[in-house]
From TrEMBL:
SUPFAM superfamilies: Glyoxalase/Bleomycin resistance protein/Dihydroxybiphenyl dioxygenase. Residues 1-20 form the signal peptide. This is Glyoxalase. The lineage of its organism: Bacteria, Pseudomonadati, Bacteroidota, Chitinophagia, Chitinophagales. It comes from Niabella soli DSM 19437. Residues 29-150 form the VOC domain. Keywords: Signal.
Length: 155
């Protein structure tokens, strides 16, 4: 009986090691996304206080960058220098997941930030075919942002 337990333990540990190796052997991993903005302070404040991202240290220290943690190993780089906001297609967007879309919407409403569903209906929520709820909003430079409640992100 002891040998069976030992064998099962070895099989389990081997499977865990293989799974960990699969996760770490990806050929390409996301590192960062960069956006070019008119007003760095305004954009950084939006991503910190409205979106809720944590600002992290950036190496340049020249007053033209703000970096925000977007995942365990990914960041958003906000770069000062655009002469004016541009218009973007909604399909060209970044996406963040929240645990409670209702709480996030309440924060948007409190801060008078408008949002819409995928079709453009103001203050409306889209429910995807997989049941995930999503909204869309724009930052101060008109970059589109999707916010959803995809639970798989938090597993």
């Amino acid at each position: 009986m002891k040998k069976i337990h030992l064998l099962l333990l070895l099989i389990l540990l081997s499977a865990m090691k293989l799974n960990a190796q699969e996760k770490n052997n990806a050929a390409v991993l996301a590192n960062h996304q960069a956006i070019y903005v008119v007003d760095l302070k305004k954009a950084a404040n939006f991503y910190a206080s409205i979106i809720g991202l944590q600002q992290v240290e950036e190496p340049f220290k020249i007053g033209k960058h703000a970096w925000f943690k977007t995942g365990p190993h990914t960041t958003l780089h906000i770069i000062l220098g655009a002469d004016k906001p541009k218009e973007y297609f909604k399909n060209n967007h970044m996406c963040f997941s929240v645990r409670s879309l209702d709480d996030f919407i309440a924060k948007l409403d409190k801060n008078h930030v408008s949002y819409e569903d995928v079709k453009g209906q103001k203050s409306a929520v889209t429910t995807r075919v997989d049941g995930v709820k999503q909204i869309w909003l724009q930052d101060p430079d008109n970059y589109w942002i999707e916010i959803n409640n995809d639970p798989s992100v938090f597993q």
